């Protein structure tokens, strides 16, 4: 009905109002529909003359900001549970490891359960214990092989620990236990060091068919921890014993 169907809003709107040009007179039965249409376009207030610009609705000035977007997503996706952003992004570990822990918290690491969700058929078995299907929470939290790595630190601090169901819960609980740690920054690194060592061992078994015993994986976990802790305070190099004593 409108004459110029490809017109933009700036072609049709001026501060005086809308200017639609119809190609013929309206029929009686069309008048109400056109009136409704005018009512609808009148609800778009706040129009200004000027060039079209991208306007992000999450910000009062229409400017996209990553931290505002993060907060919006954090608020809407996590349904009230606290998202452990600090434990993931403020931990002094290599950035690629932070990204990996973030994927773990999202339960999106490519363990066999997630590979199967992508349509690949597998007979899922945990590479470490061989007893159950491989999921993020099993591999990194509940597997009896993995538990041996956790126990290095839990036994050392005499903590009686019930492993939570999910990675996010582990990160929150670990932070709470950190109040007893001598050095909280170092304490915060421990879960990442465990998970990185476990993931390396899992991939060594999966892709190279090389199986290391648990002692070797414990050692590589401690070495990751010491290496990352030494980067924390760049002016002093601490030994393995010093790092373990300081957590
Ligand atoms: Zn297992």
Characterization of this structure:
This protein has a domain at 84-246. Helices cover 55% and strands 2% of the residues. It has helices at 9-12, 28-42, 66-77, 85-89, 95-105, 112-117, 136-142, 144-157, 167-177, 184-207, 214-232, 240-246; strands at 13-14, 17-18. Helix 7 packs parallel to helix 8 (144-157), helix 8 packs antiparallel against helix 10 and helix 10 (184-207) packs across helix 11 (214-232). The chain is elongated and about 90 Å long. The model has no long low-confidence stretch (mean pLDDT 87). Residues 126, 128-129, 131, 138, 143, 145 line the site of zinc ion. It comes from Solanum stoloniferum. Residues 64-150 form the Reverse transcriptase zinc-binding domain. This is Reverse transcriptase zinc-binding domain-containing protein. It holds the Pfam family zf-RVT.
